[in-house]
Specification:
By secondary structure, the chain is of the alpha/beta class. The protein contains 5 helices and 6 strands, in the order E-H-E-H-E-H-E-H-E-H-E. The protein has a 6-stranded parallel beta sheet, sandwiched between helices. The chain is globular and about 40 Å long. The mean pLDDT is 89.
């Protein structure tokens, strides 16, 4: 009898107005595939107005139904928020081995965006669905202030990794690879 070996699944969630096939996010997907991961890297539409948020929420439901227990998840910027929301969706919960949040946050720095981040996440539920939380920040991030990622790490009791010189980790600004992240996935 031949036993089927189940691939470890990896979910990669891009940030606002990004593309999961480009920059370090696309690079990471390629690196994980080479290492034998089954990679899910959905492409979410750009949010231009508040009504567009619904499209992201609907897409999140589809992603959650594709997720398997013991998967790893990596999010960048707004993609981190999407991972948090996906794990809170009603229904059967998925249990992740590791969640790596790069330039993550859970609040709005702009008062016009507060509604998008309400209600605040259920931190107890989130902590119970992931074995190991890791938050990564760059001390020179001008888009998501490092203190916001530190606050997120505190809420999740996450391991905090502080780097220098990566800014907001944007492929559009020349960050095409991110070898340090492989240590945490």
């Amino acid at each position: 009898m031949v036993m089927e070996v189940k691939q470890t699944q990896a979910l990669i969630m891009h940030g606002w107005d990004d593309d999961p096939s480009r920059g370090w996010v696309g690079w990471l997907g390629d690196q994980l595939r080479v290492r034998g991961y089954d990679v899910l890297a959905p492409h979410f539409p750009t949010i231009r107005r508040r009504s567009d948020i619904g499209a992201w929420h609907e897409a999140l439901k589809e992603v959650r139904y594709e997720m398997q227990d013991d998967a790893v998840a990596v999010g960048h910027s707004l993609g981190c928020w999407q991972i948090l929301r996906m794990l809170e969706l009603p229904g059967e919960k998925v249990r992740l081995r590791t969640a790596v949040l790069v330039s993550g946050f859970y609040d709005a720095s702009d008062p016009r965006a507060h509604d998008f981040f309400r209600p605040e996440p259920d931190w107890g539920l989130l902590k119970s669905t992931v074995d190991h939380w890791i938050c990564i920040l760059s001390r020179d991030d001008q888009i998501v202030a490092p203190d916001r990622t530190r606050a997120l790490a505190g809420k999740l009791s996450a391991e905090l990794v502080e780097l220098e010189g990566h800014g907001h980790f944007l492929g559009s600004k020349g960050m095409y690879e991110f070898p340090e992240i492989l240590e945490y996935v």
